[in-house]
Amino acid sequence: MSPQWISERLTAGDCGPGVTVYELDSGRAGPSVLVLGGVHGNEVGGIVGAGRLTAGPLELRAGRLRVVPVTHEAAFEADSRTGPADGGNLARSFPGDPAGSPTERLAALVGDRLIRGSDVLVDLHTSTPATDMPFFAGGLDDGGPAATTGVELAVAFGAGIVWTHGSLGPGRTLTLARQLGIPAIYVESPSGGVLDRARLDGYTGGVRNVLAHLGMLAAEAPPARPDLWLHGDGDTDSFTVTPAAGLFLPEVALLDRVERGQRVGSLLDPRGRELAVVAAPEAGHVATLQRCAVVAAGTPVVGVAPARPPVLDRPSDAVHARVMAA
Question: How buried is residue 144: exposed, middle or buried, by Cβ count under 10 Å (0-12/13-18/19+)?
Fold first, then answer.
């Protein structure tokens, strides 16, 4: 008989924030995999992508799978990236504080009760409604054993694009996983705030690919060779920002190859007059792109990441050589 999904409610104290966890246990030895959706409450693609995994039977051969479709419930109910009570960004709040704000308490709950003790973390995000990113799987590649396994899982996810980072900013789920020695990946996709069936299939199929790679599901078709492997800063908070308020007009498309200092957009006033030129911060591929025209001063509008070089002097060099030669 196939294992059955069970659900459990976890809360941070009697009146604190909480999450609903769906668990599928094969009853056999194997990895414990945690899938999170909705760390940002308005990223509905990741939420439904995670939730679909729990909606039917899954022939789990080994290990345990835990899924939280909506991790920041208050933000989801408010259709917001952040918590309405404290303005907290859960994706910047780990490891959290059990005595802190609602978002900090939620981070402590998720970190202590779910991330800690897992063998693998998969965090499903989407771009924001204002900004597009390609569909990719990525994570840390700092040369450590957990990071190298994470690189293999990012490739196995099969999104078509891999984006690895030499370091991670504070407060992220992946940062906590790194501190705990847990392999972890995250996923992003374009068109935040809307649902697309093909993209949802990409999320659920990608998680299934990871589970198959770990020996937890029957092996399916191996993931295709990535179309592009990027390596660089994934902190969208640090990308090229607008010098003033205005209307942003992009002049490049996602994944276009650009050179450092190349014109990639302009800032206009309501009469179409150019207020400023937006230039590429470095050479590489356009990895994030503002799509809503109205921007405030300091809005990140363009992010560029270079292609991964063949040699980083890290164990993942062997992964890169094998995968890109396939």
Answer: middle
Residue 53, CA atoms < 13 Å, CB-side half-sphere? 35
Residues 89, 111: Cα–Cα separation, whole Å: 15
Residue 248 burial (10 A CB sphere; 0-12, 13-18, 19+): buried
**Contact yes or no for 134/161 (Cβ under 8 A):** yes
CA atoms of 274 and 248, how far apart (whole Å): 10
Cα–Cα distances (Å) from 326 to 113, 227, 283, in that order, read 39, 11, 26
Average pLDDT, stretch 194-200?
Answer: 94
pLDDT value for 233: 80
- Spatial separation of the C-alpha atoms in residues 37 and 121, rounded to whole Å: 11
pTM as predicted: 0.96
Q: Which are the contacts of 252, defined by CB distance < 8 A and separation ≥ 6? A: 258, 264, 265, 286, 289, 302
Q: To the nearest whole number, what is the mean pLDDT of the chain?
A: 94
The pair of structure tokens assigned to 307 is 């292609």
- For the record, the structure tokens of 149 come out as 């396994």
Provide the angle, in degrees to the nearest 10, between the axes of the packed helices 145-157 and 197-213. 130
Question: Any idea what the Cα angle at residue 249 is, between residues 247 and 255, rounded to 5°?
Answer: 135
CB 2 within 8 A of CB 24: no
> What confidence category does residue 13 fall into, taking pLDDT thresholds of 50, 70 and 90?
confident
Q: What is the pLDDT of residue 132?
A: 92
End-to-end CA distance of the chain: 38
**Helices of type H across the chain:** 44-53, 73-77, 102-110, 145-157, 173-180, 197-213, 316-324
